[in-house]
Amino acid sequence: MNLIIDIGNTATKLAVFQAGKIKNTQIITTIVLVEEVEKLLAIFPEIKQGILSTVVALETSDVDSLQKMLPIKVLTRLLRCLL
Q1: pTM of this prediction?
Q2: Angle at the Cα of 10 (from 80 to 36), degrees rounded to 5?
Q3: Fewest CB atoms within 10 Å of the CB: 4, 9, 49, 59?
Q4: What is the count of structural domains for the chain?
Q5: CATH number of domain containing 42
Q6: Residue 12: which domain range?
Q7: Hey, what long-range contacts does 38-41 have (CB within 8 A, 24 or more apart)?
Q8: Which among 33, 69, 39, 23 is positioned nearest to 54, based on CA atoms?
């Protein structure tokens, strides 16, 4: 199982995927991100990795907390696409 986190300007979306199928989705505020991910990991202990995509600055402590819970690749607006 994989966890996808998408932090936009107005909402943060979470999605749990397994074998290419969505198992769960949520829309939350970024303030409760770490707590909501903890809850999802308790419900879906099979989650083994994640991707976090954000267009806004995220507290380093939040990223650190998430990465302590599971391996997460972080994509930001500063990431450049290499062609």
Answers
A1: 0.88
A2: 90
A3: 9
A4: 1
A5: 3.30.420.40
A6: 2-76
A7: 38/69, 40/3, 40/14, 40/16, 41/69, 41/70
A8: 33
